[in-house]
Amino acid sequence: MSKFASLAHYNTIPMTDLRSRTNLIELARSLLVNGPHKMEKTPRRIRCMFDNKWIVDTITAHYVWEHPYYPQYYIESGEMRSQISKDSNIDNGDAAFLATLSGQNKKTDQVLVFEKGQLAGLTRLDFGAMDAWFEEDQPIYQHPKDPYKRIDILPSTRKITIKVGDTTLAESTMNMFLFETMLRTRYYMPKTAINWQWTTPSSTITVCPYKGTAEYYNININGTEIKDGIWWYRHATRESALIEGMACFYNEKVEVYVDGVKEDS
């Protein structure tokens, strides 16, 4: 198995659901005991809207990596513009609290307030519970972008062949190779290079902050279904515009040949 398999496509699968207080408590306790994977301030202007009101507008936000893959925004508590009420003490030591953010028309209890430890003075707002997030004037979707992640998209005439057993699903020499930090290379090709008789549309939709909203197809070979084996971006983000409208096979689910040499799955 490829060393990248455990990380493959992590940023485009649905986010881990932290929208329960049990999960928030577990997260807070882990951060209090072990600390974050890493953290740093960002000079970017971070704005957050909730209940149609700007509740955060700051240049002192922190990136906090709760795991190695991407950060979350943590806001200095003094920068909050809306009412946050502390509900319950998490550790009986006044280090962290579950809290509720209240607007005029709605509220969310997916809030953590830290008062001691490495995260003292910071508030964590659940990303998905907010109406919108912006870095400067650019909307951010799904989760904050990792400032240490880079995406390069390069045209390539190397021949890409996609197979499942003896069935050839696609062949192309008009490709875009997408190189992304920590992840394996992805091969995007024109949709006209694919034998679509082996596919059916999938209802799966995922969001990647670096690429956009992905739609999927299932692959059906001799009665066997490969769920979500192909994805594409109808409207890619500006930084990934070169792959807009092109299709990519999930390397780990099919056989990929680059100039006739089979990749590790």
Concise summary:
Helix content is 5%, strand content 48%. It is built from one helix and 22 strands.
The coarse overall form would be elongated
- End-to-end separation: 6 Å
Strand content: over 45%
Radius of gyration: 21 Å
Indicate the percent of residues in helices.
under 10%
The largest pleated sheet is described as: 7 strands, antiparallel
Structural class: mainly beta
Q: Can you list the strand order of the major beta sheet?
A: 1-4-5-9-8-7-6
Number of helices: 1
Can you write the helix and strand succession as a string? HEEEEEEEEEEEEEEEEEEEEEE
Number of strands: 22
Low-pLDDT sequence parts? 1-17
**Average predicted local confidence, pLDDT:** 90
